[in-house]
Amino acid sequence: MSDGVENGTIVSLSRVDALVEPYDWAFARENPELIATHWAEISAGKPAMFNGRIMLQHRAAIRDGVFEAGYFETDYAAFMTWRDAGHPGPVIRNGFAMAALRANDGAFLCGRMGDHTANAGKVYFAAGTPDRDDARPDGTLDLAGSVTRELGEETGLRVEELQVGEGWTALIEQGRIAFMREVKIDLPADEARALMLERMKHLEEEELSDIVIVRDLTDTENHDMPPFMRRYLAHIFDGK
Fold this sequence. Notes:
Layout: E1 10-13, E2 15-20, H1 26-30, H2 32-43, E3 53-63, E4 66-75, H3 76-84, E5 94-103, E6 108-113, E7 123-124, E8 126-128, H4 143-155, E9 162-164, E10 168-173, E11 176-185, H5 189-200, E12 208-214, H6 217-220, H7 227-238
Parallel strand pairs: 2-4, 5-11
Antiparallel strand pairs: 1-10, 3-4, 5-8, 6-7, 6-12, 9-11, 10-11
Helix pairs in contact: 2-3
InterPro entries: NUDIX_hydrolase-like_dom_sf
Protein name: NUDIX hydrolase
C-alpha cells in the first residue's frame, strides 16, 4: 500500500471508494493450525465470540481526497491471529468506519465493550470490521451505511434521530485504518447517554457495557481507550 496512505497520518477525505475483489491471502492459506489454536485460546470462556466472515483491505491509494481501496473476504479468526502475531506479510489493514457521535453540548459519546467481547473494556466509537452485510450487489463496500448500522446495533439509536456528516477523517496505522464520520445527536451528552443505556437493555445482543462521555482530552485518561481514538479526539479538540 502506498500513494499517500502513510502510517501515523490523519487525512481528510471527501469519500471512500471501496471494492470487494478476489485476493489470495497467504497468511490465512498457510497457517490453518496456528489460526485454529489461537482462536481456541482467545475465544475460551467467551461463547458470544463468533468466527464470522469479514472484509480486510489489501490495497489503498488516496487521490484528490478520495480513498480508493480493495477489500477481500476472510474469517475473523484469521484476522485476529494475524493481528496478534504483529501483522506479518504484505500490508493488510482492517479498514473500518466509525460513528464519531457528538452531543449538542460538544461532548463525544463512546461505548465500553462488554466483558464477553474480543476487546473487553476498550472504549471507542461504535464500529465494526466490514462484513458481507456491508457489500452491495455491485461489488462496492458500503462503509457509510456501516456507520449508522453499527451505531444502531450497539446503542439502539435510529437514523432519523441523528445528523450524519459528510466526508471522512481517516486515521492510518499499521494494520488499521479508522474512517471517522461525525454523527450528531440533538441532545446534551447526559440525556443522550441515558437514552442509549435504556435502548441497550432491549437490544438482541448487548455488545456494550456502558456509554462513556468525553468532554475533553483529560477524560480520555480515565478509560482504556486505544491510541488511535485519543489521536482523533486530540485532532478534533485541538482544532477548535
